[in-house]
Amino acid sequence: MTQPQANIGVVGLAVMGSNLARNLASREGNTVAVFNRSYEKTETLITDHPEAGFIATSTYDEFAAALQKPRTAIIMVQAGRGTDAVIDALTTVFEPGDIIVDGGNALFTDTIRREAAVRATGINFVGAGISGGEEGALNGPSIMPGGSAEAWETLGPILRSIAAVADGEPCVTHVGTDGAGHFVKMIHNGIEYADMQLIAEAYDLLRRVGGLEPAEIAEIFAEWNRGELESYLIEITAEVLKQVDATTGKPLVDVILDQAGAKGTGAWTVQSALDLGVPVSGIAEAVFARSLSSKPAQRLAARDLPGAVDAWEVSDRAAFVEDVRRALYASKIIAYSQGFDAIVAGAEQYDWDIRKGEIAKIWRAGCIIRAQFLNRITEAYADDPELVALVTAPYFADAVAGALPSWRRVVSGAALAGIPTPTFASSLSYYDGLRADRLPAALVQGQRDFFGAHTYERVDREGTFHTLWSGDRSEISAADAH
Ligand code: 6PG
């Protein structure tokens, strides 16, 4: 029998899997075994890329036989039932100590479940978030692996070899046990939703209020990409806005149907945040903005409802553009701040030791939300590991304070002019809520106590209280009330 030659295998050879396999094969020291449910895809890949030296396999037995021990395989199939089927097949041909990595966008609770089930067989299971799209998979993604420390020992060097590099450091770190990697990838996607929606709102304002054409706005985004907003999403926005439709000669953005799709990771972020009690309001608005866009019947029915009460006349266009830029930056800080709050809450809930500064570091390159200011997040957590809200760190607090007049002008102007800015506006409201001395939550507590005797606490005395709202209206402590 021939000796197994591959140190790593990839299962699932659609575009993400193929690209990741090619990336692995291109790195010194890696030999990659590949497997796909239909052999055709495997054949296409090995024919198109002879330089990769892939070991093609057509059954799970062959695949396992091609791998050196501990066998390590990365599953790159669409998240869901397909993943479970591949895991079942691999666990029958793998042995204790081997490693199965799920590189898809799995829901982290599925990963927790799968990790426990696979671990029971003695095989390691690693849920790894991989960000960067097709191009990232091929040239260097940002990778967020969970799983055991034992698995990380074997996997770490392999993942480090294929990850994107930022300032000389590979964008991969062992995030935490079981579902931690997929949890952090989910939050990454939530922030991605917010970031994209914020950019879209900025574009809408520049177009509808600033009267600028897509090509001009593309220039503005390209310019913004040279400053504190520098990021992949700003960069590609300029590219998208520049694009002209080949058929009509119109800006492509004008012929694309204005109904945004979603594969679910944004909604998962919000659902998890609701469970954890973390206000990720900017992310939630971004998810809902996509939902609203995709409701043609309701939008048609509402089209003639009254709108603006004030036309927004811009006298100084440069100043307006700068206002929008600052509002975008401040809202973006809130999106990241909320995302990191969710990471902290998730880590607490699931007992993961997640190093926030490291997460910001591995998002600096390769991933969709890569941005210059992630270095600032790492610094903020290095200065104060117990930082309770990113927006309160000196750098971010100053940045938001500087942007505040612009932010308020943009949100209030948009409200008067009838232009939707759900993420700008909710981020500002969140900021004002967070910094408020007193919140009307006191009244909500009063209402709850009135109709349901839900009790309240007082600002001046310890204890839990209930008021007898009718009768003599005297207040009694909850202990006495029962
Ligand atoms: C990434 C992306 C990637 C993908 C998502 C979002 O990090 O590489 O987030 O995972 O683009 O599936 O897609 P939707 O916008 O369709 O939810």
Structural write-up:
The chain is α/β, with parallel strands linked by helices and 482 residues long. It contains 21 helices and eleven strands. It has helices at 15-25, 39-48, 60-66, 81-93, 108-119, 133-139, 149-162, 180-208, 214-224, 232-242, 252-255, 265-276, 281-293, 296-302, 317-350, 356-362, 374-383, 394-417, 422-435, 441-452, 478-481, and strands at residues 8-11, 32-35, 55-56, 72-75, 99-102, 124-131, 142-145, 165-166, 169-170, 465-467, 475-477. Helix 5 (108-119) packs antiparallel against helix 8 (180-208), helix 8 crosses helix 13 and helix 15 (317-350) crosses helix 19. The longest helix has 34 residues, at 317-350. The relative contact order is 0.09. The mean pLDDT is 96. The protein binds 6-phosphogluconic acid (6PG). 6-phosphogluconic acid (6PG) binds next to helix 8 and helix 12.
Measured on Cα atoms, how large is the radius of gyration?
26 Å
Low-confidence stretches: none
- Global shape: globular
Number of strands: 11
Order of strands across the widest beta sheet? 3-2-1-4-5-6-7
Total number of helical segments?
Answer: 21
Share of helix, binned: 55-70%
Query: How would you classify the helix and strand content by structural class?
Result: alpha/beta
Mean pLDDT: 96
Distance between the termini: 78 Å
Ligands (ions, cofactors included):
6-phosphogluconic acid
Major pleated sheet: 7 strands, mixed
**Beta-strand percent range:** 5-15%
